[in-house]
Amino acid sequence: MIQRASIVVLLAMGAIVGAVRAQDAPPALPAPGADGFITLFDGRTLANWEGLEGFWEVRDGAIVGSSTKEKPAPQTFLVLSASRAEPQRFGNFELHLKYRFGTPTGNSGVQFRSRLLDAKTFRVGGYQGDMDAEARYDGTIYDEANVAGGRGTKSNRGAKTTWNADNKRINENLESDNAALRAHIRRGEWNEAVIVANGNRITYTINGHLMTDLTDDSPRALKDGLIALQLHSGVVMEIQFKDIRIKLGG
Hints:
The protein has one domain (32-248): Exo-inulinase, domain 1 (Jelly Rolls, Sandwich). The relative contact order is 0.23. The chain is mostly beta strands. The strands form two sheets. Strands 1, 3, 4, 6, 11, 12, 13, 14, 15 and 17 form a ten-stranded mixed beta sheet that branches. A seven-stranded antiparallel beta sheet has the order 2-5-16-7-8-9-10. Residues 1-23 have low confidence and may be disordered. The longest helix has 23 residues, at 2-24. The chain has three helices and 17 strands. The protein has helices spanning 2-24, 81-85, 178-182; strands spanning 38-39, 49-50, 56-59, 62-67, 76-80, 93-101, 107-118, 123-132, 141-144, 153-155, 159-163, 169-173, 191-198, 201-206, 209-216, 226-231, 237-248.
């Protein structure tokens, strides 16, 4: 009788553990549409995303990250769950989204080919499509947390940058310079960003204008990893994202 009861308890415990694991498993992404794009945000919930509780919400059809004087955020990120579960799938892609700052100050970015550095605070590092409320950094590609070789801003706005196999930087100019491209950033309004990563080449376009073009042959280059959205520490800010979709490459 004792043995049978023990078996029943063990089976029940196994069922509970199994249920927890099933709950913890990331939800499957929606199927791609006819154009090959997968919708990553449904406009209503944070399904498919995970981050530090209390700093992210959905409001008026947008993902909103906010840091206040009363509740300051650490350096934290909202992570696409599928990219955490299978980072190798997210090496080559075309990512579209819209972003807007709800405050006159703030810094944010879109992480890709990135790593989870601290699971407790959702700290992420790696390649970042940079953006800020004052349009100083929008359109640059940054090495967040020095994960991709500690190279800082890897490709500036208005630049076509190559990092060669010796980790040397070679800069050329795009047709439009930094100042001309900055004029296309809509401060306080919605901006449409497109990041394309294909092998060693990455481009970052905002509002239909190519901002920077990076070729990364450095031995420190990252080939795949997380997709995430940044909420910067040390500043009162609000960042909003919507219409997030991705087409995965081979």
